[in-house]
Structures are given as structure tokens and as C-alpha cells.
Design brief:
The structure is a single chain. The protein is α+β, with helices and mostly antiparallel strands. The chain has a single domain (3-112), classed as Roll (Nuclear Transport Factor 2, Chain: A), CATH 3.10.450. The protein contains 3 helices and 6 strands; from the N terminus they run H-H-E-E-H-E-E-E-E. It is globular.
């Protein structure tokens, strides 16, 4: 399976809320960097983050996905509910590095969408 197809399948599981299946597409030592915010190392840290952040109200859409060698870039929009239960939109650009057909590294650029 090409890297782009792997990411598309993993995204399907994340949209369904199946974090454990999503994580089967990650390497054990996966590293995620949310530029300017936080860094996560290893599947357990990623699982904890996803369980805290991705709730049943989380929605995301991917508008563009481009594959080049071991890298896949995806751009889109994600919606989370804030502490007041209001839906807030963010623009996201994710650069994934693959290793042996699995997601090994993420550099995510996420900014709040203005003029919602």
C-alpha cells in the first residue's frame, strides 16, 4: 500500500473514533510535533493525546493530500469544541514521514481559523 493510501485508511479510523486501529498505522517510536505547541514521543503518548483531544464531537476534513517519496503532506480543517461547548475551526497542515509503510513522524501546523 502506498503511503498516501495508508494515511487515508488511518484517517478513516480516526474519524470513526477507533484510536487503537489508527495507531496500528504508526511506528512504535512515532514522534509528533505540533509546531510551537507540544511534542509527543511514542505510541503511548500519542494515544493519550488522541484520547484527550479527539472526542465524538471532533470533525476534520482533508482538502489536499500529496505524496513524495517517504513523505505525505495533507491540508485541511479540523473542528473541536472548546470549554464552552462551542465549535472552533482550525486550519491544519500536516507533514508525515513514513518508515517501512508506517507513520513515523508528524510535523503539524495548526492555527485557529479566523472569521468563522
Amino acid at each position: 500500500m502506498k503511503n498516501k493510501a495508508v494515511l487515508e485508511k488511518a484517517n478513516e479510523y480516526l474519524k470513526e473514533g477507533d484510536i487503537d486501529m489508527f495507531l496500528t498505522y504508526c511506528t512504535e517510536d512515532t514522534e509528533w510535533s505540533f509546531v510551537g505547541q507540544k511534542n509527543l514521543k511514542g505510541k503511548e503518548a500519542v494515544k493519550q493525546y488522541l484520547e484527550e483531544t479527539y472526542t465524538e464531537s471532533t470533525e476534520f476534513q482533508i482538502d489536499v493530500m500529496i505524496e513524495e517519496g517517504d513523505f505525505v503532506m495533507q491540508m485541511g480543517e479540523i473542528h473541536f469544541k472548546n470549554e464552552r461547548k462551542e465549535k472552533v475551526a482550525y486550519l491544519a497542515s500536516d507533514l508525515w514521514r513514513f518508515q517501512d509503510g508506517k507513520m513515523a513522524e508528524l510535523k503539524a501546523f495548526v492555527i485557529k481559523k479566523e472569521n468563522q
